[in-house]
Design a protein that fits this description.
It is built from seven helices and twelve strands. It is of the alpha+beta class and 259 residues long. The protein folds into three domains: 6-75, no CATH class; 90-175, no CATH class; 182-259, no CATH class.
Length: 259
């Protein structure tokens, strides 16, 4: 399909899903009507749910206006997502969670829960980069990345999770050319949970590759190899938890991997 060239801004009359939901967001405007099937709907916008739901056309525009303030259609650049928040949700704009800090530092400053179809929940957490149109989606199954290749400008797709950590999350924005925060200098080793044991890079790599831990045998081999590489470079440290799981943390001395 030819990507829709216009969007409408939606401001629901009632915010029923909490303060982290987008106060306003866009839907694509289809002047020729909402079809039964929309071939080429981008994966970063979930799934096409059918006509007159996550799209707006002259026929369904009056219905949308029963539930929301809807502006007149306006043009957008071609790579713009179909559905995006007009601004960050108030409680996410300056929240203190480490993941939010990482996303904002990498330029993903438009943060909100959006009604993307095709996920387990009616709303999913979306972090958009407002200038290069990259996107990161968080739902109960993990993190879904839709960045753009810095060499070609084309989109690519990657998934992490559901078990992951900040050290692994940083690899995808960096591969797309985004700057991510460097761990703050620290003295000594990071504090470990009670009963946890710090592993050498080789021991941790063996557990990861063999899947010899409760969350092992990750179906994404590239993810496992990325963790092994980060361990041997000293970028992250691995700890063995009392329940058998592995936990990862940024190395406060990134040039000194554990022996």
């Amino acid at each position: 399909m030819n990507p829709p060239t216009h969007r409408v801004a939606i401001h629901p009359h009632h915010q029923l899903t909490g303060p982290d939901t987008a106060v306003g967001y866009t839907l694509p405007y289809l002047p020729d009507g909402c079809p039964d099937d929309l071939e080429g709907w981008p994966a970063r916008d979930g799934q096409y749910p059918g006509p007159h739901q996550n799209t707006v056309c002259p026929t369904c525009l009056p219905t949308h206006r029963h539930h929301a303030d809807v502006c007149n259609p306006f043009p957008v650049p071609t790579p713009t997502p179909m559905i995006y928040a007009l601004e960050s949700a108030p409680q996410l704009a300056d929240g203190g969670h480490d993941l939010l800090h990482l996303l904002r530092a990498a330029g993903f400053t438009r943060l909100a829960w959006l009604p993307l179809a095709g996920y387990s929940d009616p709303y999913v957490f979306v972090a958009d980069h407002p200038t290069d149109h990259s996107r990161i989606i968080l739902d109960r199954h993990g993190l879904e990345f839709h960045p753009r290749d810095p060499a070609t400008g084309g989109p690519f797709h990657d998934v992490l999770g559901p078990r992951t950590d900040l050290a692994a999350v940083t690899t995808v924005p960096r591969s797309a050319g985004h700057t991510t925060p460097t761990p703050r200098p620290a003295t000594g080793l990071p504090p470990l949970p009670p009963g946890a044991r710090l592993l050498s890079a080789d021991d941790a790599a063996r557990l990861i590759i063999m899947g010899d831990h409760p969350a092992g045998q990750n179906p994404d081999l590239a993810y496992d190899l990325g963790l092994v590489d980060a361990l041997h470079r000293g970028a992250i440290l691995a700890a063995h938890l009392p329940d058998g799981n592995l936990a990862f943390t940024p190395n406060p001395h990134p040039h000194n991997p554990t022996p």
